[in-house]
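Exercise: predict the structure of this protein bound to 2-keto-D-gluconic acid.
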Amino acid sequence: MQKSVIVLGRLSSSQWAELEQHFHVLELTKPLNLTQPEVLAALSQAHGIIGSGLAITPQLLDAAPNLKAIATVSVGYDNIPVDELTQLGIMLCNTPDVLTETTADTGFALIMATARRVVELAEWVKAGKWQTSIGPALFGSDVYGKTLGMVGFGRIGQAVARRGALGFGMQVLYSNASPKPALEKELGAQRRELNELLTEADFVCVTVPLTASTEHLIGADEFALMKPSGILINIARGKVIDENALIHALNNNVIQAAGLDVFAQEPLSTDSPLPQMSNVVALPHIGSATHETRDAMAQRAVDNIRLALQGERPISLVNEEVCR
Ligand code: 8YV
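Solution:
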């Protein structure tokens, strides 16, 4: 009997056709409503699920006794209970590599936009306020030649650092559990303790995954260590930052500015003051959101689920233990 795969999210027509060659494919919409009989019927048959932002609850797992693999269309999987899946023998696959450069571009867009006040000044021009030549009140800060502090030095962190070092003559510092000698050689990057990095960097760029040990990694004490001219960039997960402490730091000249692609709550609550602040550039979690990259991520998820359900090793498997 053909195996069944549930798809939650967009696939191209060729990706859809590729899946249909091998599986019975069912499309459902997010969030999954587990009280709907058709959703429960689909889950009861499902061997695989493809989707992003998946709420993998115990109820969902109970409703899907045949589940063998989940392919999240994201590199991050902080929203997924990996240990529970491993215990149940369910493979979790993600989409690293294919989104690295695009997400690093987003990080650099935020570095440029915050330092040179791109959004604020574009809005100023749009409002017809450019009537005389501009003075120092509207000047920004240099990016070229400054110090870039990477909090987390995995694939995306390294790609941001490469842009900074090779394109913008930046001195790269990084804090990471393990040293990265190859990058030290390639970019002249230097490893620092987090506190030292915060003190020395002009730009602090966060790329660590969200885990129990990185939640609120950057809070009031950490902002106090940064330079008053320092700029915080977050392209990781919102909860790595204590947002209340960030708002306080931005309002009280503890740091200069922040460029944020991610927030503790997404979509961002309309109560959040962050997007209205002139020293904040807030984006709607677009790290990987280009046509090319989202297509490549969807393709990786399709490849992962196909391999997993055909008994082969998926390209990017998070919980290797399931295969042992
Ligand atoms: C995702 C992301 O695309 O990959 C990740 O972890 O944060 C984004 O690139 C987003 O979560 C939607 O899937």
